[in-house]
Amino acid sequence: MDHALTLRGVTKRFGSFTAVCDLSLEVPKGCIYGFLGQNGAGKTTTIRMVMSIFHPDEGQISVLGHPDAAEVKDRLGYLPEEKGLYKKMKTAEIVAYFGKLKGMDRSTANEKARGLLTRYGLGDWLDKKCEAMSKGMGQKVQVLGSIIHEPELVILDEPFSGLDPVNRDTMRDIILDMKRQGRTVIFSTHGMEQAEQLCDYVMMIHKSKLQFAGTLAEVKKGRDLGIQLDYDGDGLALKDLPHAARVNDHGKHAEIFLQRGADPQQALRWLIDRVTVRRFDYREPSLHEVFIRTVEEANQRLEAAGAGR
Amino acid sequence: MANKTILVAQREYLDNVRTKTFWLGILAFPAIFAVAIGIGWIMQKTKATQPYAVLDLTEAKLGERIERNARANDQLASLRRVMVDAKVSPEQLAEIDAIDATDPSTFPKKFADQQARIDPAEAKKLLGRIESIAARYRYVALAELGAADGTREAREKALKDKVRTGELFAYFVLEGDPVRDADELKYVSNNLTDDALRDWYSGATTRVVRKLRIAEAKIDPDTARHIQEGIDFKAQQVTATGAVEDVKGEQKANKFAPVAFVYLLWIAVFTAAQMLLTNTVEEKSNRIIEVLLSSVSPSQLMAGKIWGIGATGLTIILSWAVFGLIGVNLGAQVIPAFREWNLTEVVGDPLYLASFVGYFLTGYLLFAAILVAIGSVCNSLKEAQNLLQPVFLLLMIPLFAMVPVVQEPNGLMARVFTYVPLYTPFAMMNRASGPPPAWEYAITTVLILGSVWFAFKAAGKIFRVGVLMTGNPPKLKEILGWLRTG
Chain B contacts of A88, Cβ < 8 Å? Predict the structure, then answer.
């Protein structure tokens, strides 16, 4: 059994609305897997089905080799999208409580909770109440609560949302540490950078349908190369670049895609005359670009299908 | 599996019991009770002396006789009271009853004789009692008020002025010949609500006038007393064995005790159930529920919450029971009425206490199931409160039925209430003074356990779906759908 998670033809409907449509997916053991998609695309519903909080209307799910996550609850870790803590409980208590709920004995859970919190920079907060913590700290406490029992598979629903850079790094460390220990981590995110840096595999859902799934290299394969440009100067000028198909301008950085057959060297020459180029890189597209393109293409297909009907 | 339920329950319990506000709340209840009783008692004790004057315009100078009689009567009542407390023989009580307070020639001697018979401790108590009663109303001589002489109008004006300034609480005017015709007696005061002085003085006047009228009509005093004797039915009851016995004060208290118990039961059930609702909604609104559900099943979570908060409620009522026992025992030292009613026995009555705990648990479980289901479909306390209103109204009914049921514990209404599952715990507690026959206890136990089981099943189905729902609360139709399919 080399897959931590397998989905086959999974569909979930809420009334007339289809939240997830015919989703098939394999998550190999020991990898970091990113779930991408817009808000409302179906990521959380998928995760909830994996966690047996919802049950799919069609299709099969196999979690750690079992058809129902309820059977392997204690081997799973889960951080839901909406995060909350018991305000009146102390930090170490609540992490230990989550551990105990997963079947850990009292003293091990208490010890482990204090150890984890200290290791990830919350040593001063062990005996403070959760209500006193900032949002970012609370989120860290929650993640630690979901991994205290050393689960084989951890599913984190948007673990990075709302975190400052320092806490993001801590969150990244937590995820990488788990990978190093041979655990499987699935997380959903809107942050393409995190996904690009962390994930071995990514998949994307758009409007309840799977768009792509695979390693980062596989996902980017066959896509147009693009210019990665760091610059100073007036970004508006970039819009006039000859033979440009698309320009994603971020102000100091831009990603530029040329029409088929256009020469990047010419583009560079044109750019140097207009802005101060600090870095020019001709390479595979970023995940961000892949994401945006996928959304656009999918929407066009849907429109076409709608018009053709 | 059950282990997780216990973990959840434990956490709920500790979460509540650990807070200071919880214990303050527990303490506040008996404290408020004690303060309420204490204030009444203190007010009684510290009631200001009411000074009064009497403008006696009668030829026979009745005022003096009335005053003497009023005081003598108070002393006699105090003596009787102390004797009853000292549990003297019925013969001696009869002797006391035979003393005529209206006869100034014999009263002081007879009173002194009786006083001499009681032991020093009781005598001291008697003196204290007489003093405190005597201090309630103070007779002020007209001379002190500048109303001793002059025209009638001038004297009365002086008295009126004293009433207005508050120097006098009231004054009485005795006029004409009250023995013949008592139409011209007046009581003048600014206080319209406190009638105690007027009643007290009227009592004495009645006794004096009556005695004079009897003498005038040449009726033998013994005959007169016989005629005037009040008739009373002696209260008796049939015991379980079929014997007839006298009803004592404690038994009356005993019969009414269930009212207090039902009231406490109601507060306890409602407090605990409300706690559960708040807690469920809170957990749902701060999204912690999803994390929990990744570790425990919805039914474990629900059961854990219900048991945890049930234990909290049990802690509350056990604390109250302890406070109650302590309070009643302390009260018995201070307030004699407590001792007479034998409240310690009433509060400590095993049937009552067992019913109280048992019906708390079953009543709580029933309402807990309803409220946890409501809580699970609501996203905010505000929403929950709207849904709660009908439940609250349902819960009010046992309170209204409390007194009628206790008066007729095995009557039709009591029985009807008993078989409405929501009210069974309250009704059975209420009827405990009956007490209902054993077979009713058996049937209601089955009934209520069955209802609890059913309520738990239904609540479980609603909870499982509702707890993960966001957005608008579901319609009743949808909920019924969950119940059918779940």
Answer: 15, 18-19
Number of independent structural domains in chain B: 2
The residues with which A61 forms a beta bridge, in sequence order, are A7
B9 and B61 belong to one structural domain: no
Q: A72 and chain B: CB distance < 8 Å anywhere?
A: no
Convert the pLDDT of each residue in B355-407 to its tens digit. 888 888 888 888 889 888 888 888 888 888 888 888 888 888 888 877 777 77
Q: Is A87 on the interface with B (CB under 8 A)?
A: yes
DSSP B328-370: HHHHHHH-HHHHHHTHHHHHT-HHHHHHHHHHHHHHHHHHHHH
Quick one: B176 and B211 in the same domain? yes
Query: In which domain, by residue range, is B299 found?
Result: 2-27+249-485
The pTM for the full model equals 0.72
Decide if B7 touches A, using CB distance below 8 A.
Answer: yes
Looking at the domain assignment, is residue B51 inside a domain?
Answer: no
Provide Rg for chain B, Cα atoms. 32
Those residues with Cβ within 8 angstroms of residue B454's Cβ, 6 or more apart along the chain or in another chain:
none
Contact A29, A4 (CB under 8 A): yes
Domains contained in chain A, CATH given: 3-220 (3.40.50.300), 226-283 (no CATH)
Can you tell me the ipTM of this complex?
0.79
Contacts of B271 (CB under 8 A, 6+ apart): B313, B316
Domain contains B336: yes
If asked whether residues B332 and B437 sit together in one domain, one would say yes
User: How many angstroms away from the CA of A51 is the closest CA of chain B?
Assistant: 6
For helices B298-334 and B2-17, angle between their N-to-C axes, nearest 10 degrees: 40
C-alpha span between A89 and B10 (Å, rounded): 13
Q: Is A84 an 8 Å CB contact of chain B?
A: yes
